[in-house]
Amino acid sequence: MTNGQILLTIIIMSVCTIATRAVPFILLKTKPQAGDSNIGIAAYLGRSLPYASIGMLVVYCLKDTQFASAAGFAPQVLGVLATAAVYLLTNKSLAAIIGGTAVYMVCLRVF
Amino acid sequence: MWVRGFASAFPYTIPVMTGYLSLGAAFAILMERNGLAVWWSVLMSVIVYAGSMQFVGAGLVAAPFAPLETAVLTLMVNARHLFYGLPMLDRWRDSGRLKPYQIFALTDETFSVLLTAKAPAGMNPRAFEFCVALMNQLYWICGTIIGAIIANALPFDTAGVEFSMTALFVVIFLEQWKSRRNRAFAVAGVAATLVSRVAFGDKWFLLYAMAMIILALIPLRRLDAERTAEQ
Fold first, then answer.
1. For residue A20, which of B58, B116, B169, B50 has the smallest C-alpha distance?
2. ipTM for this model
3. A96 contacts in B (CB within 8 Å)?
């Protein structure tokens, strides 16, 4: 990527992020009531997309996993398991992220 | 007034501070590893200011230029922000010149602080909220700078640190998984992306995945709990 393309990519991200935050303020005058049909499908997508897109991002992060040799998948599998284990045991997001990343980094050098 | 505003807002922002300093640092380390100079990281933290999306963005700016994919991905990843404005519509009606920044800086964490934090008596609540929002972004930017310094100064090999992004999304995924009624959406996201990765290779599969997700969500609408409750 050229510097111009990097800048453009960041600007696109900025504009689209601002759009998602500003749309309610631009389109709505007051808080919509339950059953307000004119925001129906948009409201549904806004509610469901966060769940679907995090699922998508987990897969996206693991897209380069290879199953030909242990080195291609063991660090990913163990890293994800470690992250999940720390999170489910301690309920602390940051501890889980640091712990999982540490396990991954170690595995990367072991396998 | 501003000194008092920042002083009274500070205690409410402490939990955000730890999170933003470390995640901001992780983001900047990722950018450095992808070969991006520190000012790109800082620019992103200043004008994008969206945690998860910046982690994804660190990959986007290191890959071939893909403006459409970038736009669609940003809209999808940040779709949840559409809801953060709703409780603030009435509250911020008369915010005046503070309003553009308040809307810009409405991240997940700032939103959750603003839902519960109360301005001290005698203090303009809008100014208090502005202080909360600005301090949070400053933590994020400081974290970014600290991360860039760490990435350049530390002698050890940082290979594998990019997994912090994977771990972040795994944690958010598990957090969301607790809400039983939204699991179908999470499964749809995983399944659509897996299928398109296998079917379309590693270059453009995200665009296919996003299209498949939208198509999958339409029939799933009958599972949507809030809609069922309305009828």
1. B50
2. 0.88
3. 167, 170-171
